[in-house]
Specification:
2 copies of one chain form a homodimer. Chain A is mainly alpha-helical. Chain A is built from 9 helices and 2 strands; from the N terminus they run ααααααββααα. Chain A folds into 2 domains: about 55 residues, Arc Repressor Mutant, subunit A (Orthogonal Bundle); about 150 residues, Tetracycline Repressor, domain 2. The longest helix of chain A is centred in the first third of the chain and has 25 residues. Chain A is elongated, with a radius of gyration of 19 Å. The first copy, chain A, binds a DNA duplex (30 and 30 nucleotides) through helix 1 and helix 3.
Chain lengths: ~210, ~210
DNA sequence: TAAATTCATTGAATTATATTCATTCATGTG
DNA sequence: CACATGAATGAATATAATTCAATGAATTTA
């Protein structure tokens, strides 16, 4: 099976990229609600219909903008296997908060809006709900903690992962509500010290 | 100045109440986006135009549904003046989480969507942004803590109030994301013990 | 190579709602 | 009673999102 369909495929990918880039630019500037499909299409130099070749709904373009986010987080968890629990948590939280800053406030806002009502989506081949993915990343850090004896065997990792993630979401929402005035990746260490460690303390073995 | 305008006033109030009740019912059932003004009007037995006699925008009806929330929280803070700091915090957090459960998941979702982008609104005569209000309630609890010597004078109450509130929002958003499966007012005590107290520990005097 | 097929692209048409507004009518005022 | 006011109405308007039939370039087939 040789790769045929060369020109079409390349152009389609290019069109998609242009649409995503245009959406990112405009949404970052003006906010999701204020940007019409027509605006995105014009900015990308395509027609409105083309948008719908690549995205079912207007909101779906946000998923595209945050897919890199998810991939990054998943990757992050693997990269830090060798560090101890505390370091792994810090690293993860820092990446999470850094990503928030990276995508910017308007995209972050829309991400929350989309995710408040969880929808099924395909991540790495499996159908999961969005929050599951963050949740699973955090869960795997804690799980690893048990395997290494950093946490006791009876640590309720499901609850704790959900709980700790909730705290991260809290920072994210506070960040959006205060127009980015509060909390960023710089506060990660204090977040982990004050919020995450106390939650884990009862189960900590070191 | 006698109260004239009796019938009109009463009927107007009644119409408003019917609209709010209809909105609450339908939004709770089907979610904000799925409910059209026409649906609300029909349910309330009025015309679509009447909706706009009482609300500028569709979203404004959510404010109405949550005004009681804010008033309750403000009232709560005053009711618990005699308790110690820890009890006051627990009481406040419990009411906050209880309110989330009370209004239900769909209204809560829309409340977050509205509040992520803070808008100015009049609360008790002053223009404030929405998040300010929750924030001020929490701030006044901590402030009282300093006055009573429960917290040291140099406690950064602005930062801490914002921070602790962020954690409450985190629970709220997690609650919405997990379809109400996680976290409720029952977990308040553990929330305060694990999350709030550790944050305040460095400044605690008792 | 020519004919048939596929598929991205287009933009006008459709659809769905939110919002406005001229009109009507019941209530309040002098 | 006669005029003024404000609430209620619902058809008209406005704004976007979404659909879809037509087009033609790229690809496949014979």
């Amino acid at each position: 099976m040789e790769k045929k369909e060369k020109v079409r495929q390349v152009r389609a990918a290019e069109t998609r990229r242009k649409i995503v880039a245009a959406a990112k630019k405009l949404i970052t500037e003006k906010g999701f609600e204020s940007v019409a499909i027509e605006d995105i299409a014009r900015e990308a130099g395509v027609s409105t219909g083309s948008f719908y070749t690549y995205f079912k709904k207007k909101e779906d373009v946000i998923e595209e903008l945050n897919r890199s986010n998810f991939l990054l987080l998943a990757k992050t968890v693997n990269e830090i296997r060798d560090k101890d629990l505390n370091e792994r948590l810090k690293y993860y939280c820092r990446e999470f908060l850094a990503e928030i800053e990276r995508v910017g406030i308007e995209i972050c806002r829309q991400w929350i809006r989309n995710n408040i009502t969880p929808t099924e989506m395909e991540i790495e081949g499996k159908m999961t709900t969005k929050y599951d993915h963050d949740y699973l990343a955090m869960r795997s850090i804690l799980d690893e903690g048990i395997k290494r004896g950093e946490l006791s065997d009876d640590t309720p990792i499901d609850d704790l992962a959900l709980y700790i993630n909730a705290q991260l979401y809290g920072l994210m929402i506070a960040w959006c509500m205060t127009e980015g005035k509060m909390i960023g990746s710089k506060q990660t260490d204090s977040f982990v010290e004050k919020i995450v460690k106390p939650v884990l303390m009862p189960y900590s073995r070191r």
